[in-house]
Amino acid sequence: MIRLDGKQTSATLKKEIAEEVEKMVANGQKRPHLAAILVGHDGASETYVGSKVKSCEQVGFTSTLLRYENTVSEEELLQKIEEINLNDDIDGLIVQLPLPAHISEEKVTEKIDPRKDVDGFHPQNMGRLALGSPCFVSATPHGIMELIARYNIETSGKKCVVIGRSNIVGRPMSILMSQKGIDTTVTLCHSRTQNLKEICLEADIIIAALGKAEFLKGDMVKEGATVIDVGITRVPSDKTKSGWKLLGDVDFAEVAPKCSHITPVPGGVGPMTIASLLFNTLKAAKKEVYSK
User: Fold this and answer.
1) Phi, psi (rounded to 5 degrees) for 231
2) Is the pLDDT score of 147 beyond 70?
3) Is 231 left (phi over 0), alpha (psi -120 to 50) or beta?
């Protein structure tokens, strides 16, 4: 069984990005610039945005963090996004989700210029992904594809089951895994899927992204399968100083012995998400997706 080490792989990807940034600067180009908008004081969002800012520093990016209170109006937030859209110095923009109930996440997502949508959530980027056109692929799916490629996991002709149909992970993963060059036969499962266990037992690759701690059990996985665990859930624990621990969607103790490859939680998909966000920002700065 091989653990897919997202921490080490993300470090490698960041090193490659940093080297590319130094080449750009040496050639007289500006450093890639990522802006992030954070509304409120949600602990998980604070931690995640903090990691993004730190990662920008590590690879030589310029970063801007804009903070707003929960009371900020939707109109004010949309105006700020438009201002950033028009700022040629900023290459990528992310708005940390979730947002307060009075602000439409859909309006915010659609307001971001697709050319700066390094989260890959804009309908234009999602549509281009479905068509197989150049686009910004949302960071978690992109990170998973990087792990698959860098560990040389065979995909052609294999059966892939994606559990979860969110627009952030499940749907884009099903598209990516079916694209030419990857060539898996994909089954997209969800909360209404019948005979899920039987479907999973046929899978060569399982991508679990439904947000239920330790949902995927050992008796749902065949010998030699590759399992990608996207889930991350905080659960109480009396064995840690913090009083909680992180669990994935996969019951690691049961599933891992049966796998050829598996991602741990933490240290698997999570670190790849931030590295992929940086990768998208570099592409945005180099105008590799949208030439104008």
Assistant:
1) -70, 150
2) yes
3) beta
Q: Report the catalytic residues.
A: 52, 96, 119
What is the band of 292 on the pLDDT scale with cuts at 50, 70, 90?
Answer: low
Domain limits for position 143? 139-269
Quick one: pLDDT band at residue 75, thresholds 50, 70, 90? very high
Q: Which two tokens stand for residue 102?
A: 């009075």
Selection from 230, 185, 225 nearest residue 207 by Cα = 230
From CA 66, how far away is CA 36, in angstroms rounded?
A: 6
Same domain, 186 and 232: yes
What CATH number should be reported for the domain holding residue 259?
3.40.50.720
**Structural domain contains residue 226:** yes
In a domain, 178, yes or no: yes
Q: Residue 137's closest CA among 182, 100, 105?
A: 182
Same domain, 143 and 262: yes
Torsions phi, psi for 138 (to 5 deg): -55, 145
Report if residue 290 sits inside a domain: no
Average pLDDT in the 148-172 region? 97
Four-CA torsion 196, 198, 200, 201, nearest 10 degrees: 160
Query: Do residues 161 and 59 both lie within one domain?
Result: no
Number of domains in the chain: 2
Provide the 10 A C-beta neighbour count for residue 27: 7
Instruction: Give the position of tokens 């979730």.
Output: 98
Does the pLDDT at position 149 exceed 80?
yes
* Residue 65's CATH number: 3.40.50.10860
Amino acid 209: pLDDT: 96
Is the pTM value of this prediction over 0.85? Answer: yes
